[in-house]
Amino acid sequence: MTKEKFKETLLVQMPPYLRIDDDESEKPFLELIAGAACNWITGSVGAKVPWEDERVLAIGLAVASDLYDKRYLQEQGGTYQSVAVSNTVKMLMNDFLLQLRLEGKV
Q1: What are phi and psi of 46, to 5 degrees?
Q2: CA-based angle 103:100:64, to the nearest 5?
Q3: For the chain, what is the HEC assignment?
Q4: Strand pairing category for 79-82 and 73-76
Q5: Residue 63's pLDDT is what?
């Protein structure tokens, strides 16, 4: 699977995953998020990404969910910061990326 095909898959999977009923009004933002997720994965693991691996899709959806759900800012200690993704999701994403590297898929 190519990066472009993966991005298309993300765009199909994201609305139900994110529980978005009217994805037409959100389409430009979803396209931005899908592109950012693809580029983040490529930047994290390198040019040889196994786009067909289910873990890559899980990472892409987790990144998309975080970017979509945490697009609002929250005041913390006098400054505004993005609400952070849970530590569990961070750990899973790091583990998935490490597994892909160790398996020689990247």
Answers
A1: 105, -175
A2: 170
A3: CCHHHHHHHHHHHHHHHHCCCCHHHHHHHHHHHHHHHHHHHHHHHCCCCCCCCHHHHHHHHHHHHHHHHCCCEEEECCEEEECCCCHHHHHHHHHHHHHHHHCCCC
A4: antiparallel
A5: 86
Which residues is 73 bridged to in the sheet? 82
Angstrom distance (rounded) from CA 80 to CA 65: 20
The total number of residues written for the chain in this structure:
106
**pLDDT, tens digit, 9 for 90 and up, residues 34-61:** 998 898 888 888 778 999 999 999 999 9
Choice among 41-45, 75-79, 97-101 with the minimum mean pLDDT: 75-79
Residue 86 structural domain? 3-102
pLDDT confidence of residue 105: 58
Per the structure, the count of domains in the chain is 1
